[in-house]
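Exercise: predict the fold of this chain.
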Amino acid sequence: MKTRFLGKNGFNVSEVGLGCWQLGGDWGNEISEKKAFDIMQKAVEGGVTLFDTADVYGNGRSEEIIGKFLKEYKPDLRIATKFGRGSDVYPNNYSKEALTMSVEKSLKRLGVDSLDLLQLHCIPTKILKQETIFYWLKELKKEGKIKAFGASVETIDEGLFCAEQDDITSIQVIFNIFRQKITEQLLSKTKEKGVGVIARLPLASGLLSGKFTKQMLFNENDHRNYNKDGNAFNVGETFAGLPFEKGVELSDKIKNDFLPENISMAQFSQRWILDHDSISCIIPGASSVFQVASNCSVSELKHLDKSTHNKLQEFYNNHVHNHIRGLY
């Protein structure tokens, strides 16, 4: 596993991290604690050094399971968590007291003295641009409750704004073959400012695994069912904002027209992201140890050739961009 630096004032992270949304169990099938431990252990064995979670994943369950894993196995890991989407604060009840309380609860659930990275969790643009919340984060850093802070954002505009904030370590943003817009401005800005970039949804909710069909059905409590048209939260967080059937069509076209031999569609899709040197880390989720091993292997794959990158950019511009829905 290769490593990269997460921002000029951050720390080294593995190129492939582990997204821990699924460990919360409230958006899809619940993963047992034993299975969660197996997934996390496989990730550590594969060289993963960054786990990404949030206080609201399973109402704290994801953090609790990670905390138990840290206590039992004592792995050399960095844990990134988030604040800002809890029902007690979202969308307009943010305060330093609420932030501090959330941090204290995350510290307790994770069983650590200081959070490695605390990220604002897609908070409203209006709150973000008031900037007050960044002063609160700096105070928590001075107090030693957090080592670094960043922001998970929904739009290019939010990302550009956050990149200008003093002492910010990283930005987390949706980035995959179906969501290429950040290459136009945001990646150059973060590189200029020395801000790390964590790429979430690298497989567009599974579309870019190349295994879905139009007839595929998802469980009632899976966001790929109830949020496929943005009925619960930003539609861009599900299938990268693409209508499901169109996403399957586009994924099949990539598989048929661009996929090299001896590499899976999921590996190809993640390698494409890592070929961008402004990206610090990708954080695919995993529901099995097989998926973890496959994801980890992406770091060792050779870069895709320039011709492939050019063709995929043209494909995005001509066939994908106009179908994207939601904040972008």
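Check your answer against the key: The radius of gyration is 19 Å.
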